[in-house]
Design brief:
The complex is a heterodimer.
Chain A (H helix, E strand, L loop, with lengths): L1 H14 L8 H11 L5 H13 L7 H23 L5 H11 L3 H36 L1
Helix pairs in contact in A: 1-2, 1-4, 3-4
Chain B lengths: L9 H6 L13 H12 L6 H14 L5 H13 L4 H40 L2 H4 L1 H30 L4 H17 L3 H14 L24
The chains are: A mainly alpha, B mainly alpha.
C-alpha cells in the first residue's frame, strides 16, 4: 500500500512541475510535512544524490522513493518520473498536425525563442555553482 | 529546395518529409537506445546539456534536422515533469514510433535511476570525498558550456533570419520576465500566447504552406 501511495504522491508532484527540481516543494509538503514518510535530512540527501549523479536532475525522485519505501519505493519513483514524459507524444503529434498553420508555427517559434532565453540564466547559475564548489574543494 | 535553404527555424521541419532522402533510413532501435543512454547518462547538471549532445548525434547521423530538434525541445518544455525524458520520448516517437519512445525513455531513465538507487543506498559517504566533489564541479562546468551551445543552436536560425530584431526583442522580454520572478513555465505560456498573435517569422512558400504528411519515412507507428 505504501508503494502505491509513494507513486501517487510522486506522480502528483512530477505532473504539476515543469523541470527537474520544480517538484521539490510539493514533495516536501507531502512526504515530510503531511505524511511524514521521510525526514527533511533524507530529502536533502535525496536532492544531493540527484544532483551528484549523471542523468536527469529530476531523477532524484528515485532517491525520494527509496528513502520513503525502500527498493519498491525506488521503482515507484522511477515510474513517477517517466509517467509525465509520455504526455510528450500527444503534444508532439498535435503540434505537428497543426504546424502548417502560420499561427501554430509562430507559437512554436516563440516558445523555442523564450525557451532558449531561459537557458542563459540556467547556464549562469550552473556555472556559478560549479565555480563555488571548485573553490570550496580546492 | 535543400535543408540549407531552410535554415529559418520550422521551415526545415515542415520540409523534412520532402527532403527525407537523407532522413529516410530506418533508425535501428538498438543504436537509438545506446545513443540515448550514452548521451543522457554522461552529463551532470541537467537535461539541456544532454539534449545538445543528442542533437549533435542525431543530426550527424541524418536522423533528424536541427529544426525538428527545435520543435521537440519546445514540446519537451511544455510537457510536465523532467524535460529531457519528454525530449527522449518525443524524439523516439518521431524516429521509430512507440517502440522508439519506449526504448528512448527506458535508455534515458533506467541507468541514472540505478545509479541513484545505488548512491542512495551507499549515500553521502561518496559525495563527501573532495575528489568526487571536484569531479562533479568540472562536470557541471562542462554542462554549463553545453547549455550555452544548446541555446545558440536553437537561436541561430532565427538570429540569422530576417526577423532578427523581433527575435532579440523576444529574448529580452523572456529574460526580463525571468528576472522579474516569473516561473519558466509561465514565461513559456506567455510566449505561446504572444506567438499566436504575432506575424510568423517565415512566410511559407506554396509548398511549405501545405500540411505536413505524417508518413515520414523511417517511422513505424
Amino acid at each position: 500500500m505504501t508503494v502505491l501511495v509513494v507513486y501517487a504522491l510522486l506522480v502528483k508532484a512530477t505532473l504539476t512541475s515543469f523541470s527537474g527540481l520544480a517538484s521539490l516543494p510539493q514533495i516536501r509538503q507531502d512526504f515530510v510535512e503531511t505524511r511524514r514518510l521521510m525526514s527533511d535530512e533524507q530529502l536533502t540527501q535525496a536532492v544531493l544524490v540527484g544532483r551528484a549523479s549523471p542523468g536527469p536532475v529530476g531523477a532524484y525522485v528515485v532517491s525520494v522513493g527509496y528513502f520513503a519505501a525502500g527498493w519498491p519505493g525506488a521503482i515507484a519513483g522511477w515510474l513517477a518520473m517517466i509517467t509525465p514524459a509520455l504526455l510528450a507524444i500527444p503534444l508532439l503529434t498535435t503540434i505537428e498536425r497543426w504546424l502548417h498553420l502560420p499561427r501554430m508555427r509562430s507559437l512554436v517559434d516563440a516558445v523555442i525563442i523564450a525557451g532558449s532565453a531561459l537557458l542563459v540564466p540556467a547556464g549562469i547559475q550552473l556555472g556559478r555553482d560549479a565555480l563555488v564548489q571548485l573553490w570550496r574543494v580546492l | 529546395m535543400t535543408l540549407e535553404d531552410n535554415r529559418g527555424g520550422l521551415c526545415a521541419a515542415l520540409c523534412e518529409s520532402r527532403t527525407s532522402g537523407n532522413m529516410s533510413r530506418v533508425t535501428p532501435l538498438g543504436q537509438l537506445g545506446w545513443i540515448v543512454a550514452r548521451d543522457v547518462n554522461r552529463t551532470v547538471g541537467g537535461g539541456y546539456a544532454a539534449m545538445e549532445l543528442l542533437r549533435r548525434t542525431f543530426v550527424a547521423r541524418g536522423w533528424m534536422t536541427g529544426a525538428t530538434h527545435g520543435v521537440i525541445v519546445a514540446v519537451s518544455r511544455l510537457t510536465p515533469g523532467t524535460n529531457v525524458l519528454a525530449y527522449c520520448t518525443a524524439a523516439g516517437w518521431r524516429l521509430r514510433g512507440w517502440r522508439g519512445s519506449a526504448v528512448a525513455l527506458a535508455a534515458a531513465s533506467i541507468p541514472s535511476s540505478i545509479i541513484i538507487f545505488l548512491m542512495s543506498a551507499a549515500l553521502v559517504r561518496v559525495a563527501a570525498y573532495r575528489a568526487v566533489q571536484a569531479g562533479l564541479a568540472v562536470g557541471m562546468l562542462v554542462a554549463c558550456v553545453l547549455l550555452f551551445a544548446a541555446a545558440w543552436s536553437l537561436l541561430e536560425p532565427y538570429i540569422k533570419g530576417r526577423a532578427r530584431i523581433r527575435v532579440v526583442a523576444m529574448l529580452a522580454c523572456a529574460l526580463a520576465l525571468y528576472f522579474v520572478g516569473l516561473t519558466p513555465v509561465r514565461i513559456l505560456l506567455i510566449a505561446a500566447v504572444v506567438g499566436l498573435f504575432i506575424r510568423p517569422m517565415h512566410e511559407p512558400s506554396h509548398e511549405e504552406g501545405r500540411p505536413k504528411t505524417h508518413t515520414t519515412a523511417g517511422t513505424s507507428r
